[in-house]
Amino acid sequence: MNAQNFLRILSASGGALFSRMTTSSPVRTQPKSWDSLPKIAHRGNHRRPPHRVEGMEDPISPKSSTPPWASGEQPTPASQPGWPPAAREAGSGRGDGTEEAARAYQAAGAPKFNDVPVEPLPYHRLWKADPFHRWWKPLVEFCISGPVYLVLAILVSIPMLVAPLLTGSAPVTIGPNGYPEGMFSSPFTFLIMFLSIALMAPCVILGRLIMGPRPLGLLFSVAGRLRWTWLATCLTIGFVLFVIVQGLTVLLSAATGEETPTPSFDPRTGVWILLIILIVVPIQCAAEEMVFRGFLMQTVGRWLKHPLWAVLLPAPFFVLSHGYGLWGLISVGILAVIAGVLCIATGGLEASIGLHVGNNVTTVLLGLFGLADPFGAVATGPSDAIVTLVVEGLYAVLVLWAARRRRIPARRDPAVTWQAWPGWALQNAGVGPRVPTTH
């Protein structure tokens, strides 16, 4: 064998060996479709699914085939997207599309969704953030909150009327403005009067918890909660402004020679009344705002879109809840309108609560120290209404300036609202991600 033949044989055997090596270890290439990959049962250290714990349900693949509303209860938005299974598969890209998901959802007998909001929602239109809210629910909400408050107010007022009979003291007499006379001499009467109004807060919350819209925090602001930092800012502005105004009023009256009341303070009763003013009176103010600016404004906004209706229509109810004279009622109406405008402009109740608390607390404190008679004054003149307009208008300007500097949102972001709708509903509305379909 010569060298040329040896090299030819070696080349042939080497080529065969190389061919076997490349055949046993093919180069991996990306398949055209992942669906074409064979189903291989892997061995070794593969991950096993976690064991199902009894009593716990998988929100994506519920163990029960019965929808949550089969018992007659309304599902919450958080649990809604999982039903029915066809709708869930379509929303995750495993179904045939959103139209099939919508038909499957309807066939399952589920509650109908409201239209998906595509624009930011103002405060008086926050009902649109709840996919299941209906036009008649505010009426039922009132039928729940109203009677409950009436019963509680009567129960709380009974001790005030019965106490004189048991103690032999003078009976309670109601003044011309609707308040009991001599309130600053009786901490018990003072407490009952403001507590009976503060009870409106839990009653409104009860009605909202039952009827919606949800979440509950939509009653307070577009953020779905009470914005405590912003509330503290509004309270600070209100207190500082009204303390300055009330102090200037007292000094101006003394400088002009007008008859001014003599300062007085009885520590036996004054300390208790002071605590009530600092604790209960702010709650009473917040309760009134929850009713007249929260519930009523959002109820009007449920039926009428323009914010002007939501500001003006609740104002007469707030005015008629006070027992003042003509100019006093006009002053109350000015407060109602300014508070309503601030709710729309700042997206919540915090600014109106700051206005109401600042006005009431400073006025009642003046009465406690004998510098005013907030419960006995009925006949007022146009000057009081003018002062109210100027002072509360200045408060509104300061609050709006602070809201702009702090970038307080006045509308609810639709991206946050969309979380209450399932994916297929968002896609049908043209605001969700595109659903991939298989053919």
UniProtKB/TrEMBL annotation:
Q: What is this protein called?
A: CPBP family intramembrane metalloprotease
Source organism's superkingdom? Answer: Bacteria
- What are the transmembrane regions? 142-166, 186-207, 228-251, 271-291, 303-320, 326-349, 361-379, 385-403
According to its UniProt entry, one GO biological process term is: CAAX-box protein maturation
**Keyword terms of this UniProt record:** Hydrolase, Membrane, Metalloprotease, Protease, Transmembrane, Transmembrane helix
Give the Polar residues compositional bias ranges.
21-33, 62-79
Basic residues compositional bias, start-end: 40-50
- Spell out the residue ranges making up region: Disordered: 21-102
Gene Ontology MF term list: endopeptidase activity; metallopeptidase activity
Membrane: is it a keyword of this entry? Answer: yes
What is an example of a Pfam family matching this protein?
Rce1-like
CAAX prenyl protease 2/Lysostaphin resistance protein A-like domain boundaries: 272-361
Which species is this record about?
A: Rothia koreensis
